[in-house]
Amino acid sequence: MLFRTLFFISILFSLSPAFSQNDSTMIRKLFDEALIRGKSYDDLRSLCKGIGARLSGSTQAQMAVEWGKRKMETYGFDKIYLQPVMVPHWERGNKEVAWIQSSSGEVVPIDILALGGSIGTNGMLKAEVVEFKSLDDLKKASKASVQGKIVFLNQAMNPADIVTFTAYGGCYGIRGHGAVEGAKLGAVGVVIRSLALPEDHFPHTGSMYYEEGISKIPAGALSTISSNELSKALEKGKVTLIMEMDCRDFPDEPSFNVMGELTGSEKPNEIITIGGHLDSWDAGEGAHDDGAGIVHCLEALRILKTTGIKPKHTIRVVFFMNEENGNKGGHAYATWAKKENQKQIAAVESDRGGFSPDGFECDGNPSYVQLIKGFASLLKPYDLHHFEAGYGGVDISPLKSAYEGIPLFGFVPDSQRYFDFHHAASDVFERVNKRELELGCASMAAFVYLLDKSLE
Amino acid sequence: MLFRTLFFISILFSLSPAFSQNDSTMIRKLFDEALIRGKSYDDLRSLCKGIGARLSGSTQAQMAVEWGKRKMETYGFDKIYLQPVMVPHWERGNKEVAWIQSSSGEVVPIDILALGGSIGTNGMLKAEVVEFKSLDDLKKASKASVQGKIVFLNQAMNPADIVTFTAYGGCYGIRGHGAVEGAKLGAVGVVIRSLALPEDHFPHTGSMYYEEGISKIPAGALSTISSNELSKALEKGKVTLIMEMDCRDFPDEPSFNVMGELTGSEKPNEIITIGGHLDSWDAGEGAHDDGAGIVHCLEALRILKTTGIKPKHTIRVVFFMNEENGNKGGHAYATWAKKENQKQIAAVESDRGGFSPDGFECDGNPSYVQLIKGFASLLKPYDLHHFEAGYGGVDISPLKSAYEGIPLFGFVPDSQRYFDFHHAASDVFERVNKRELELGCASMAAFVYLLDKSLE
What we know:
By secondary structure, chain A is α/β, with parallel strands linked by helices. Helices cover 37% and strands 24% of the residues of chain A.
C-alpha cells in the first residue's frame, strides 16, 4: 500500500514555478464574480426559505435533491447525476413538551428537543432527575443512584477553547452516548445540556446512538437556560422531570446524492471532489449547517465555469445526503467511485458554516499541508491565513479508506458563532451574512483553482 | 524634530529575548479571564440598553460619562479623571419623513435619516430630483441642471473591496461634501445613498460639512432599497422628492472624556493610552460603533488588573467624547497631555466594531510595524494574524502632531459586517456576538501587555 501513498506524493508539482501574476489576476476575477455578480445568497435563500429543514427521508429532503439537480442544470454543469442511496427515516412528530417540578410542587416549563434517533416517551414520562457533570461521572455512578430516574447530563462547552469545535468535541459524548450509559444503570430517560455556547432558549438536537443489547431510553436536549434552571432547582432538593416526545423511526427510504461536474481539460478521468451535505436537522432551516457548504460548492463551480477556467482535472461537486444521521451518502459515494475504478485525487468539504473565511485544513500527507501553505501568499489579500494540518469533513471521510493516501481538505471559516445556531431552530437564512457567504464561495473557487493547478 | 523620532525608535527593546514561555502562559490567562469570567458582554448591554444612543451634547451622552466613571470606579482603577471638553450639540428632532412622487402622481414613502449636522427643511421641502453617481459627476454638472433641485448622490459602496473600510472610504465624499457641492450649483437639498453594503431599509447617518460662504442646504441619507427605488423611478421620468427634516444645531455643550489608569510599576510617568469613543450617532445604540471599542478597552484594563499584571508604564484607558461629529475629545486630550508635559509613548484605539479579532495595525515608524509583527507567533493560537502598517484611530490621531514619532495602533476585527450596522438603527446590542466581543477584549489586553513589555 506504500505504492499508493507514493503515487499521491508524486502527483505534486514542485510549487514555486506553478504560480504567476496570472494566477493572482485569475483569483481576483473569482472574488469579483462572487462579490459583484454572485448567486450564492439568493441560492441559499431559495434552499432555506423555499424548502427549509430537510432531514434524511423527509419530503423536504427529496425536494432539496430536486432543487440541487435543477440548480446544476441551470448553471450548465457538464454532467449531472443522481446517485441512489438508502437513508434512515426518523421523525420528530408532535412538538416535545417538558416541565420541571420541584419538591414544593411548583411546575416550570422547559425548552426541549428530542435528540435525533431517540425513541419517543410513549405518552407522559415522569421521573426524578439525577444530574451529572460529564459522561465519565455518569459511568462512575452506582446503579442505585440512577435506577428509575431521568439522567441529566449538564456538561457545558468550554468557553476558553478558542476554536469552538474543540469545545464541541469535548462534550460530544453526552449527546452520542448518554442514553446508552444511562440505560446501563437503569435510567428511564436522559436529557442533556445542549451543545451550545450562548445562554438562550434554543435546544440543539443532533445524533445519538443506541447499542445492541442495551435497552433504548428516550433522549432529549434542553436549552442552556433550561439546563441552568434545572441545575439550580436540583441544588434546592428533589426535582421531577415531566416530558413527552413523540419521535419515532420508520423504515429506510430511498434518496440521492446530487452530483455535477466540470470536465477536466487534460485529465478528465481524474477527479477532485468538492462537497457539502444537503440534508439538515429538522429544527431551523439548515442555513449554516450545511446550506452554506452546499452553496459554497455550487457557487465555486459556477464561478470557475463563468470565468472561463478550464480545470485540468474533472471538478465534481457532490451534494451529499444524510451526513447528520448516518453518513450513508458519504459511504455510498466512496464505494461507488471505487467500484467504478474512478481516479479520485483529492476532496474538499465545506461543513463548518457560512462565516468569514479563515483558510483550509488538510487531512493528508505532510507534503499536502506544505502544498496548501504554498497557496497562502496568493490568498493573503483575501484575509485567508489558516493553512494547517487538520480535518476534511464527514462526507468525504469514507474516501480515505477507499483511496489510500488521498488528501482531504476542509474549508475553515471563523468558528465563533457556529454553536449559536448548530442543530437549532435558530439556524436560519437570516443568520448568514451575505458577504461572509460570498467570500466563502470565492475562497472555495480559488482553493480548487490552485489545487487543480498544483496536482500533476 | 529628528531627535523625537530617534527617541521613539530608541525605546524599542531588541525583541527576541523579550518574550518567553511565561508570556505565552500570561496571554492564555488573559484570554481565560475574558472568556470564562468576562464582564464585557454585560457591560456592553448596560451601555446599550441602559443608556442607548449617546450623541455629543445629549443627556444620554452625559449619562454615558457617568456610566464610564462608575464602571472604572467599580473595577478599582488607580486614577479616574473626567476631562472637560466643549462639544457640538445637534438634534434630529421629529422623525424625518420623505416620499417620492413620479410623473404619474403616484406617491411612495422612502426611508430617510438626516445627516448629522444638517439643517432642517423648515417645513415641507418639495423639488425635482437629479441623480448623480458620484461627487465628481455632480461637480462636473451644469448649474442649469441642478438649480432648484434636490441632488441625489447614488454611489454604491464597491462590494469587490475585501476590506469594507476601503469601500466606505471610496464613498465618503458624497456624505461629507455632497451638500456643499450641490449648493454651489443652486440645489435646494441633497439626499445620498447610505454608505452601507446590504440592501435593506435602514438609512445610515453620519457627519457632513458646510463651508463658510456656501449656502447651507438640508442633507439626508436614504436606505439602499429606497435609493434603488428612487433611481428606478428616475429611469421612467421626472421624479419629485417631498421631505421634511426637523434637525437643528444648538450652542456647544460642556462634556467630558473619561479616563482611568493602571499606574506603571517602573515608569509611572510614561503613558500608553488606549481608547475608544463614548459618543455615538443617535440611531441605534452605538453597539459596534463604538460601544464595543469602549468595552474592549475597559475590559482590557480590568483583565490586566485582575490577572495581577504590573505594567512597567502607566496604561491609561480613555473614553473619548465626540468622535462622530467633531473629534473635540481627541483634540482636547492631546492638547492637555502636551500642555501637562506628559510623556505619551504609544496609543491604541478600538473603533472598528466588536467582531472576531484579526490583529492590529500600526501608524508609525516601520520599526514599530516590525515590533508588532514580532507579537504574531505568541498571538497565533488566538487566530490573530494581521500585523501590518495601517491606521490607528480618529480619537488618538491628534497625538500624532502633539508627539512627533509616537506610534499609533488600531485594533482590527473582521470588517465584513461592520457596514450592515454603522450609524444605523440596526447598530444594537443584539448584533454583537458575546464571544467575538470577548475575544476582542482579550486581544486588546494581550496586545497592551506585549506593547508595555516591548517598549523601553
